[in-house]
Amino acid sequence: MKRQLILEDGSVFVGYGFGSDKEMMGEVVFNTGMTGYQEILSDPSYCSQIVTLTYPLIGNYGINRDDFESIEPTVNGLIVKEYCEFPSNFRCQYPLDTFLKDKDIPGLADIDTRKLTRKIREHGVLKGRLCGMEVVVEEVVADLKKADWPRDQVRQVSTKRSYPAPGRGHRVVLVDFGMKHGILRELTQRDCDVIVVPYDTSAEKILRLSPDGIMLSNGPGDPKEITEGIEMIKGVLGKIPLFGICLGHQLVALACGADTDKLKFGHRGSNHPVKNLETNRVEMTSQNHGYTVTMDSVKGTDLTVTHVALNDGTVEGLKHNKYPAFTVQYHPEASPGPEDPNYLFDQFMELMDEGKRMAGIEM
């Protein structure tokens, strides 16, 4: 059945629908990864967004039970050049189309995704709607122009209650701003005793859990709107070793007096080169963010830039000059993507070891 994508600038892309036939509006973004569509669709950081995949053929290895990054996806739509109806892979359990129907996510295929991506790169992210052919384009465009960007994505995707992932090693409080399961997997693989808590958990409640370290997860939306998280970070900084990833990185920057800004079209893909300024090495990274810490705003704070993106020079990593805290803008847990920066989880473990030694606790 023919369906269309209508953008707020009046552009129309007509193709064929798959997945759900539900009408959905969202921020239209693109991801340049060649694999990993299952992880992308289940990444909570894509909440309320319509994702365009630049790789031309999607769905050829199907969907399996092991590669989900969340239980319930919150993406608003998927756009591809061509999707595969009959996947072939030994891990495949069902096709992409079945998954999208089951989760009520609309898909659009057979459009010029290269043209759409170039438009986003030129003009920046745009609001769009996936809909049927019966709508009046001018009315949809007017609605899109009036529509506000969603402002409660973190509340939507964060856990509502605390829960444990037991282990016998370091106790880590993982603050869920829209956590990918890959982060939890890396901590449990290191035998951490993890307690996952909601995004609005106070510093007092976290400190009462007696953690050896605090992990701040990734998540969707504008970091400046997560005031609860910023205040919490101010309350724990300097008391407990801290590691922030993606949105967690941005929140630490804001808590320390730096600033953030929205990127024109964001960084979304699995092959972004980042330079580690401390080792002078280049790492290939997996990224998914629409906001960035502004470089000039770091000056005058107690933060030092440790990593920069080679594509555009933006801030990709920070460390605190006085307290045991560091952050990265990219995803060291990958899923999908390269695992070059996986050592950062070990660095976090060493930071917690050092914290225990300073406190005189035997390990």
From TrEMBL:
Top EC category: ligase
Pathway listed: Amino-acid biosynthesis; L-arginine biosynthesis; carbamoyl phosphate from bicarbonate: step 1/1; Pyrimidine metabolism; UMP biosynthesis via de novo pathway; (S)-dihydroorotate from bicarbonate: step 1/3
Molecular function terms, GO-annotated: ATP binding; carbamoyl-phosphate synthase (glutamine-hydrolyzing) activity
SMART domains: CPSase_sm_chain (SM01097)
Catalytic activity of the protein: L-glutamine + H2O = L-glutamate + NH4(+); hydrogencarbonate + L-glutamine + 2 ATP + H2O = carbamoyl phosphate + L-glutamate + 2 ADP + phosphate + 2 H(+)
Top-rank lineage group of the source organism: Bacteria
Active site: 246 (nucleophile), 331, 333
Domain named Carbamoyl-phosphate synthase small subunit N-terminal: residues: 1-131
CDD domains per UniProt: GATase1_CPSase
Keyword Ligase recorded: yes
Region (CPSase), start-end ranges: 1-170
A matching Pfam family: GATase
EC number(s) reported in the record: 6.3.5.5
Family the entry assigns: Belongs to the CarA family.
The protein's assembly and partners: Composed of two chains; the small (or glutamine) chain promotes the hydrolysis of glutamine to ammonia, which is used by the large (or ammonia) chain to synthesize carbamoyl phosphate. Tetramer of heterodimers (alpha,beta)4.
Entry function: Small subunit of the glutamine-dependent carbamoyl phosphate synthetase (CPSase). CPSase catalyzes the formation of carbamoyl phosphate from the ammonia moiety of glutamine, carbonate, and phosphate donated by ATP, constituting the first step of 2 biosynthetic pathways, one leading to arginine and/or urea and the other to pyrimidine nucleotides. The small subunit (glutamine amidotransferase) binds and cleaves glutamine to supply the large subunit with the substrate ammonia.
HAMAP family, sorted: CPSase_S_chain
The protein's name in its UniProt record: Carbamoyl phosphate synthase small chain
